[in-house]
Design brief:
mainly alpha; Arginase, Chain A; two-stranded parallel ribbon; 4 helices; 2 strands; about 35% helix
Length: about 160
């Protein structure tokens, strides 16, 4: 059994349009992209989990369908036919709608680690993803547009893992 592996792929910092053309606020995407680069330099001696892209539907356990659809429409600069209002995210989330690829690959790494743990081939992993602990079911806050950690926890529960206290 592999004791520890990492997931630090550049995919976890992909954007749907060139990053330099996006208006970022504070310590958001550019900062976390740099953190990922530094961690990738430091953690070179560990096995690497393969790249995996989650599906937007994997976020439905923790976010509403309308919120996810509206994020896609906002990233495409289109108005929503589902709900006439775009997501009402905190100002610090400005531009993060273009990070949906990052969020999908970040969650993908977490799911890959969980699947490997379930198979008994991995004990633990460090998986880089954009932050998400401030994201709510239907709005983003505090540099957190989506919550990959909560989505991964829900997935782990469906795979038979128990909540630890």
């Amino acid at each position: 059994m592999t004791k520890f592996a990492v997931y630090l792929h550049p995919h976890t910092c992909y954007t749907s349009k060139p990053s330099h053309t996006i208006s970022w606020t504070g310590y958001s995407f550019p900062y976390y992209s740099q953190v990922r680069l530094e961690l990738a330099k430091i953690l070179t001696n560990y096995p690497i989990l393969p790249v995996r892209k989650a599906h937007l539907a994997d976020y439905l356990q923790v976010h509403t369908n309308i919120y996810l659809k509206n994020l896609i429409l906002k990233a495409l600069n289109k108005h929503s036919d589902i709900d006439n209002s775009l997501p009402k995210n905190g100002g610090e989330c400005e531009g993060l709608e273009y990070c949906l690829p990052s969020y999908l690959y970040g969650l993908g790494g977490l799911l890959e680690a969980i699947d490997n743990m379930k198979k008994g081939v991995l004990e633990r992993a460090y998986c880089f993803t954009l932050p998400g602990h401030h994201a709510h079911r239907d709005w983003g806050h505090g540099y957190c547009l989506l919550n990959p950690l909560a989505a991964a926890a829900k997935y782990a529960q469906t795979q038979g893992f128990q909540k630890m206290y």
